[in-house]
C-alpha cells in the first residue's frame, strides 16, 4: 500500500519501521505521522538494529510478552518433567518388552489382565492393608493402646518423612530416624538402632513389594552377593563392634561416613552426562576390539551358576504371573571379581548396619554407582531391596539371638507401635516417586540429607565432644572421602574395559 504527500507528489520511501506504522495508521483511517514522529520512529528502529535485532522494552507488544511468558512455562514444564517425572525407561529394549507384554495380554486370563492394569495401585495399597490388618487388632486388643501414638507422636511424624525417603533413595528410614531420635530426642543409640531394624522390616519390605509388583528394574546379581555378605557383616557387628562403641562415637561415625560418600558422589556428578550402566557390566581383559584369547575368557568366566540358578528359579515363577511371555532381560551372572567385591561390600555395610540400623544400603549404592557406574535409578531400588533383607536379619537376631547388648528395650517397641501404621504408605509412595526422579535429583537428595545430618550432629553433640571426637569425625570424613575418591577413580578406569552399552 503506497502513500502520497499533501501536495499530491509521491512521497519518498520511508524507513521500514515508518512504513509499518504508516500502513497501520491508514488502515485505521488516521492521519499519517508528523515529521517529528517519523524521526522518533527512525531513531527507535536504529536503536533496535544496534541491539542485534532485539525488541526494546518500549516497543514490546502484549503479544510478544505473552509469547515470552509461554516460552518460560514450556521450559519450566520440561525441567520438571526431566528431573522429577521421568518415564521408567526409554530404551528400545524396554519399549519392545512392553510391546510384547501388551500382545501377550490378549491371551492372558482376565485376572492377569486386571492385575497388570491396576498393579501400581495394588503395589501402593496392598502392603498397607496387610500391615493395618495386623496393627489395629494388636493396638486395640485386649485393651486400647492407642495412647502410645499420642505419647510418641514425634516418632509418627518422623517416620512419615523417613519412610518416603527410605523408598525414594538408597538411604533407609534409619537415615532419618537414627539422627533425629538420638540428636533431637536423646533416644539411646542402641534403642534407635533397634527401632530402625523393626520399622524398616515393615517399611522397606513394603517398598520392596512395590518394586517387585511395579516391575522396577533391579540388579539381581548384585543383590544376591551383597546380601550374603550383609548377613555375615551384621551378625559380626552386633556381636563384636556395636557393643564396644560409646554413644557419641556411634552418632559421629554414622554421619561422618555418609557425608564423605555424599561429597564423593557430588564430585563424580559434576559431569551430569557421565555414562552409566543398567547393571554391573561385564569387563574385557583389554580395551581394544580384538577377540579375546582363551586365557582371557578363563579369567573372566562368570561365577558358578548355582546362586544364579536359584535366583532365576524364584524370579521365574513371579514373572510368569507379572510378565507372562516377556523374555527376561537379566544377565546370567557376574564375573568372579565383581562378585567378590560386592560380597566384601556386604560385610562392611552389614557392620555399619549393626551400629546405626542403616549401612548396607548406602555401601552397596556407593560401590554400584562409583565403581561399577550403575545408574542411580537401578542402584536405588536394588539397595532398597537389599536393606529390607538385611534389616530383617538384624531384627530377628536382636530378638531371638544372644546379643551382648541384651534384649530389645520396651522403648523401641513403643516407638515402633507409634509409627508402624504410617510406613507402609510412605515407603511404597517413595518407591513410586523414586522411579520417576532423574538420577541427579536422587543424588541431590542424598547431598542434602547427609549434609544436614552432619551439621546437626556437630551442633547438638558439641557439648559432649572432646578433641578426640572432633579428630575422629574429621578424620573419618577425610579418609572416607579419599577412599571413595579412589573407588571413583577405579570406576573411571574400569569403564574403558566394559563390554556393555551405556544408557
Termini separation comes to 59 Å
* Average pLDDT reading: 77
Gross morphology: globular
Instruction: Assign a percent range to the helix content.
Output: over 70%
Give the DSSP E fraction (strand runs of 2 or more residues): under 5%
Specify the biggest β-sheet.
none
Radius of gyration over C-alpha positions, nearest whole angstrom: 31 Å
Order of helices and strands: HHHHHHHHHHHHHHHHHHHHH
Number of strands: 0
Distinct helical segment count = 21
Low-pLDDT windows of residues:
1-34, 49-59, 291-306, 323-332
Structural class: mainly alpha
Brief summary of the model shown:
Helices cover 70% and strands 0% of the residues. The protein has 21 helices and no strands. α12 (247-268) packs parallel to α16 and α16 (360-371) packs across α21 (467-495).
Please write out the topology.
Layout: H1 16-27, H2 35-50, H3 62-84, H4 92-104, H5 110-117, H6 119-140, H7 147-151, H8 153-168, H9 174-184, H10 189-214, H11 220-241, H12 247-268, H13 294-299, H14 305-322, H15 336-356, H16 360-371, H17 376-400, H18 410-419, H19 423-436, H20 439-461, H21 467-495
Give a description of the structure:
The protein has helices at 16-27, 35-50, 62-84, 92-104, 110-117, 119-140, 147-151, 153-168, 174-184, 189-214, 220-241, 247-268, 294-299, 305-322, 336-356, 360-371, 376-400, 410-419, 423-436, 439-461, 467-495. The chain is mainly alpha-helical. Helix 6 (119-140) runs antiparallel to helix 10, helix 10 packs across helix 15 (336-356) and helix 10 (189-214) packs parallel to helix 18. The longest helix is centred in the last third of the chain and has 29 residues, at 467-495. The protein is globular.
Amino acid at each position: 500500500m503506497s502513500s502520497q504527500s499533501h501536495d499530491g507528489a509521491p512521497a519518498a520511501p520511508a524507513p521500514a519501521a515508518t512504513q509499518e506504522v504508516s500502513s497501520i495508521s491508514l488502515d485505521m483511517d488516521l492521519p499519517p505521522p508528523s515529521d517529528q514522529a517519523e524521526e522518533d520512529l527512525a531513531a527507535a528502529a536504529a536503536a533496535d538494529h544496534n541491539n542485534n535485532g532485539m525488541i526494546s522494552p518500549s516497543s514490546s507488544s502484549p503479544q510478544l510478552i505473552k509469547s515470552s511468558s509461554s516460552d518460560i512455562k514450556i521450559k519450566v514444564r520440561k525441567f520438571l518433567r526431566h528431573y522429577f517425572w521421568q518415564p521408567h525407561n526409554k530404551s528400545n529394549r524396554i519399549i519392545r518388552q512392553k510391546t510384547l507384554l501388551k500382545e501377550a495380554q490378549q491371551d492372558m486370563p482376565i485376572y492377569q489382565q486386571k492385575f497388570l492394569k491396576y498393579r501400581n495401585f495394588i503395589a501402593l495399597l496392598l502392603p498397607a492393608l496387610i500391615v493395618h490388618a495386623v496393627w489395629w487388632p494388636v493396638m486395640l486388643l485386649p485393651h486400647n493402646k492407642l495412647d502410645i501414638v499420642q505419647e510418641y507422636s514425634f516418632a509418627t511424624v518422623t517416620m512419615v518423612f523417613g519412610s518416603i525417603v527410605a523408598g525414594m533413595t538408597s538411604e533407609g528410614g534409619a537415615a532419618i530416624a537414627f539422627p533425629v531420635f538420638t540428636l533431637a530426642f536423646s533416644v539411646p543409640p542402641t534403642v534407635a538402632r533397634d527401632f530402625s531394624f523393626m520399622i524398616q522390616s515393615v517399611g522397606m519390605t513394603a517398598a520392596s513389594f512395590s518394586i517387585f509388583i511395579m516391575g522396577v528394574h533391579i540388579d539381581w546379581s548384585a543383590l544376591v552377593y551383597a546380601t550374603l555378605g550383609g548377613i555375615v557383616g551384621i551378625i559380626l557387628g552386633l556381636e563384636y563392634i556395636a557393643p564396644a562403641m560409646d554413644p557419641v562415637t556411634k552418632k559421629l561415625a554414622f554421619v561422618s561416613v555418609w557425608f564423605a560418600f555424599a561429597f564423593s558422589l557430588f564430585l563424580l556428578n559434576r559431569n551430569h552426562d557421565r555414562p552409566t550402566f543398567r547393571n554391573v557390566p561385564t569387563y574385557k581383559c583389554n580395551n581394544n576390539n580384538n577377540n579375546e584369547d582363551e586365557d582371557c575368557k578363563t579369567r573372566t568366566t562368570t561365577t558358578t551358576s548355582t546362586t544364579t540358578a536359584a535366583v532365576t528359579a524364584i524370579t521365574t515363577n513371579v514373572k510368569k504371573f507379572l510378565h507372562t511371555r516377556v523374555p527376561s532381560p537379566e544377565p546370567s551372572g557376574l564375573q568372579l571379581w565383581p562378585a567378590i567385591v560386592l560380597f566384601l561390600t556386604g560385610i562392611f555395610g552389614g557392620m555399619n548396619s549393626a551400629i546405626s540400623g542403616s549401612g548396607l544400603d548406602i555401601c552397596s549404592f556407593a560401590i554400584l554407582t562409583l565403581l561399577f557406574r550403575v545408574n542411580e535409578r537401578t542402584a536405588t531400588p536394588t539397595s532398597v531391596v537389599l536393606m529390607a533383607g538385611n534389616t530383617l536379619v538384624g531384627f530377628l537376631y536382636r530378638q531371638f539371638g544372644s546379643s551382648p547388648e541384651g534384649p530389645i528395650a520396651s522403648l523401641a517397641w513403643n516407638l515402633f507401635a507409634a509409627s508402624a501404621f504410617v510406613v507402609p504408605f510412605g515407603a511404597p509412595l517413595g518407591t513410586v516417586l523414586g522411579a520417576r526422579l532423574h538420577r541427579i535429583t536422587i543424588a541431590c537428595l542424598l547431598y542434602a540429607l547427609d549434609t544436614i545430618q552432619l551439621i546437626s550432629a556437630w551442633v547438638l553433640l558439641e557439648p559432649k565432644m572432646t578433641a578426640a571426637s572432633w579428630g575422629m569425625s574429621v578424620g573419618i570424613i577425610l579418609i572416607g572421602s579419599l577412599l571413595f575418591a579412589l573407588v571413583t577413580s577405579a570406576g573411571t578406569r574400569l569403564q574403558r574395559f566394559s563390554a556393555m552399552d551405556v544408557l
